[in-house]
Amino acid sequence: MVKPEGTAPLKVAMVYSPAPRQVRQWALELAGGTTVAQALEASGILKEFPELQGARLVLGLWGRKTTPGHVLLEGDRLEIYRGLRVDPKVARRERFNRQGAKRAGLFAKTRAGAKAGY
Q1: Are residues 25 and 76 in the same domain?
Q2: Is 30 inside a domain boundary?
Q3: What is the pLDDT averaged over residues 81-102?
Q4: N or C: which end of the chain has fewer CB within 10 A?
Q5: Range of the domain at 33
Q6: CB proximity list for 32: less than 8 A, separation 6 or greater
Q7: Each residue of 16-25: pLDDT tens digit?
Q8: What's the gap between Cα 76 and its chain centre?
Q9: Is residue 65 included in any domain, yes or no?
Q10: What's the confidence (pLDDT) of residue 77?
Q11: In degrees rounded to 5, what are phi and psi of residue 30?
Q12: Across-strand partners of 108?
């Protein structure tokens, strides 16, 4: 016998990283037809991390952006993204400037009499 749509329970994983090198993961069992917004509410993450309540959340499923109205499927991985503090390009440029051109990359090790970068 086939069950009607929306009655079979879904198993969904939810992941949030509140700080660098810290990852929190929840295993949720939700009713079929549950949306991303309903899953957030059911998980209790908004009570555990109150800073998420007023913020505009950036959400994703398996690394792809999604909306709060998206209907979840069995085995989905719901991800809550936090904003970057520093632009990655700026961070790389500053790191390179600190290291110095002579000590970084291809120029780090040279043999006597060799061309630069070999």
Answers
A1: yes
A2: yes
A3: 80
A4: N
A5: 10-81
A6: 5, 6, 7, 8, 9, 10
A7: 988 888 898 9
A8: 14
A9: yes
A10: 94
A11: -120, 165
A12: none
| pLDDT at 95 exceeding the cut of 70 | yes
Q: Give the residue-averaged pLDDT of 33-49.
A: 88
User: What angle is formed at CA 109 by the lines to CA 106 and CA 113, rounded to 5 degrees?
Assistant: 105
Tell me the whole-structure pTM to 2 decimals. 0.65
Question: How many structural domains is the chain composed of?
Answer: 2
C-alpha span between 38 and 71 (Å, rounded): 9
Tokens of 88: 């990655």
- Please name which of 82, 80, 68 lies closest in space to residue 38, comparing C-alpha atoms: 68
Residue 85 corresponds to which tokens in the numbers above? 């503090």
Rg of the chain (C-alpha set): 23
Are 56 and 104 contained in the same domain?
no
